[in-house]
Amino acid sequence: MSNGFQFTVTAIHLSFMDMSNFQTYIDQLTQLDPLYYYIALGVFILLIIIISIVSFNKNKKKRAAAEVAPYLVISQTQIAPLGKGVQIKFLNKGFTTTINDAEIVGKTNVHISQIYRDFLLETGKTYAVFCETEGRNRVDDGFDVVLYYTDSLNNQFKQQFHIHKDQPSSNAPKVVRYS
User: Fold this and answer.
1) Backbone angles phi, psi at 156, to 5 degrees
2) Mean pLDDT for each consecutive 10-residue tract of the chain (179 residues)?
3) CA 109 to chain CA centroid, nearest Å
4) Phi-psi region of 154 (alpha: psi -120 to 50; beta: other; left: phi over 0)
5) Which end of the chain has fewer surrounding CB within 10 Å, N or C?
6) How many CB atoms lie within 10 A of CB 90?
């Protein structure tokens, strides 16, 4: 018990020592020439201006990317009769985009068998990805397809689609890199 009390007294003593050092700093600042105050104020204002310009440019890029962003949805999922393959069609409801790549997430036995990279996907058009299973496995519910694409401003997007027999769904596209 006395050890905790000693620690508290020491902490209070140190805080008073810091206050006395703080007071000496204040005294030294009040003895400075007013020119130093103006220089410090000018530097502070300049930093605020630089930070606001950088922030404005970043927000400007986000707004520009949102104006021409593609909007991809799953239009059709067709599983082969034997369950070894699946064709997934994506519909572009937004602006023109270029499909760069795709990958399978969530299943190790499913792989992409046919994909067209650097494919220009216009508004209202569809894009198909063909997937197959390895060995005697069947395409089950529960794997995801991730598409990587770029818009007309060269912003890079990543969008994940959940492939299920009953109800396929998708996540909102994420911007990977602004141009």
Assistant:
1) -100, 135
2) 48 54 76 81 92 82 78 87 87 91 87 88 92 81 86 90 80 81
3) 28
4) left
5) N
6) 25
Alpha carbons 10 and 2: distance in angstroms, whole number: 12
pLDDT of residue 9: 46
The two three-digit tokens of residue 107, written as one number: 């299943």
Residues 6+ apart with CB under 8 A from 43: none
Handedness of CA 22, 28, 34, 35 (dihedral sign): negative
User: CB within 8 A of 107, min separation 6: which ones?
Assistant: 140, 142, 143
**pTM attached to this predicted model:** 0.66
Q: Which of 18, 38, 60, 35 is nearest to 153 (CA)?
A: 60
What whole-number distance in Å separates Cα of residue 133 and Cα of residue 26? 73
Residues in the chain: 179
Q: Which residues, other chains included, contact 73 with Cβ-Cβ below 8 Å and sequence gap of 6+?
A: 90, 91, 93, 170
